[in-house]
Predict the structure of (Fe-S)-binding protein.
Amino acid sequence: MDFVEALGQRMGEIADACTACGKCFTACPMTEAVGIHAADPTGVLQGMIDLLRGGDGTEEAVRWGAACSSSGLCVDACDYGVDPRLLVRLANYAHGQRRDRQTVKLNAMKSFRAMAKTVRVVSRLQLPKREIERLQPAGPSQKPQVRPDVALYTGCNIHKTPHILILCLDVLERIGASYQIIGGTSACCGINQFRAGDGETSGRAGLSTLSQIQEVGAETKVSWCPSCQSQFDEIIIPSYEKITQDRSFSLQPFYEYLEERLELLRPHFTRVVNKTVALNERPGLPGVTRAVKNILSAIPGVKLVELDVPRVGLMSNYLTVTPRFKEELREKEFRAAAEAGVTTLATVFHACHRELCHFEKDVSFEIINVMEIIGESMGLHADDIYKRIKMMDGIDRMIDECSDMIAEHGLDPDEARDILLADQIAAKPVQGAVMERV
């Protein structure tokens, strides 16, 4: 059995198990945003089942699959042991497979290459070569002779906000945990290819990365990226188990790893961090949210504030398919944070940080990552160069700021300009939460 066959079996099993009751559709926060909330829930689920079985589905089913933001709010709605989030993901994959095979593979390749180029350029606009090397997977001559405590799978896109990864490594070192990094574009989880409907390439990439993580030999296998975590948990690992009958592999989210070692962390929280903090929460991995709150609650001086706002998506970029909805949610959160008088809106994940950090100049509170708060209490610091660049007015200033790194890494200035400009276009002023900084 290969990966595609294993996926096909799982699609059939889910199609057989689903009763099309429609409760998951009713629980989904995306249906109104894409204009299908008035559809018959049972009919939509029947369309999803048809997609899983190789059929055309229905217009509403196809739109629902394309709009899934992996919030996971549907999971608890099912009374029949089906994972609705996985059902929707697999139905969307099945729909993608119906396209011409060469077109599917070409789209998958373009998506991955565009991501890889952006990661490479954006990371190198911020850090010199010696610091970039610290964040890369170890080469054969650099691998530790002794088995490390942790195999740390970073994924790709955290390298766009390298200060977060630097702090992760610094915290591991402070608590005495040895580690080996696996990640970057040479260790892909296969999610871009999977979304395009290219199961063959997705499986090859994901299973190769799984092998790389296994080869480290670490007892604890930890991941940073929630996209990678969900891709492994829902797609790669179950297919691997079907192929090999080996059920020993698992990945643990980084914050959950830290939560389990909170007693090791506590003695290092030596500095009072006087911040009133609201989290930019995402519901897709509830264990991570719990872990973050427990860790921050252990830091002297930190006061956590709960905002009464909708929680949607695995990360902010998962809402890109509904830009107006994403903007509305962001403005609601910013307005609630301002009204609550928080000093800090803390992003949990890297993609959320990329999409929110530059709005700091428009609101009354700072926007930083959770790892920065943890680091501050431990006396650790890493400059958020990404935010500094993104908050600048005008592409010329941004390029000038990065000129030394462009020269050191031999980057193409025009390519760097195009990537920064595309990134900066996403920055729009916030209408409802602008206040004077106090």
Q: What stands out?
A: The chain has three domains: 3-97, 101-259, 262-425. Confidence is low (pLDDT under 50) at residues 432-438. Residues 101-124 form the longest helix (24 residues).
